[in-house]
Hints:
- The structure holds 2 protein chains of 2 kinds.
- By secondary structure, chain A is an all-beta fold.
- Chain A contains no helices and 11 strands.
- In chain A, a hairpin with a 2-residue loop joins strand 6 (about 55-60) and strand 7 (about 60-65).
Amino acid sequence: GQQVMQIPQYQHVQEGEDFTTYCNSSTTLSNIQWYKQRPGGHPVFLIQLVKSGEVKKQKRLTFQFGEAKKNSSLHITATQTTDVGTYFCAGSNNDMRFGAGTRLTVKP
Amino acid sequence: ETGVTQTPRHLVMGMTNKKSLKCEQHLGHNAMYWYKQSAKKPLELMFVYSLEERVENNSVPSRFSPECPNSSHLFLHLHTLQPEDSALYLCASSQGWSEKLFFGSGTQLSVL
């Protein structure tokens, strides 16, 4: 069945450094979604990517969908303490599978 | 506020108890979901209801029993749970199948 792998599991950065999390699927995806879960909170939808090679930006966040629609990345430029949380990808192909998430901590 | 309300927020129960988790969505969505979130594990999809019909049951033990009386309400009935069932149980809804999910705040369940 479809599997979605996400790396790294943890990332600790100094405030102002960049951060990237990667998502890989064993099968071609129809779309991929990204969510953020703050400590003690629930996942909140960030964005959905549908097209091959698609790139979308939200302020300091850049989302990419691979040409083969099997991988994706989320890049945060100049992290801030408000970026702390766990970032999940979720790939869809008949059903939706979540990656294990990358927990980001930011040192002020 | 996401428009998806879950109660209770916290629940402690013994292995012989019967309890129910409740979820209500005010978004007019057609699909509702139960997810289980444990430490060190990906979000696990338990049940999906689309237009009030169950469309997926990922080999969830029978001690978990879902109920969807209408498109706005979803329940998860619990009985004779095990300590390993302790987790955060999240309800979510979406406009359509596999579209963006709106999560509730979750029920933190502890089974003693």
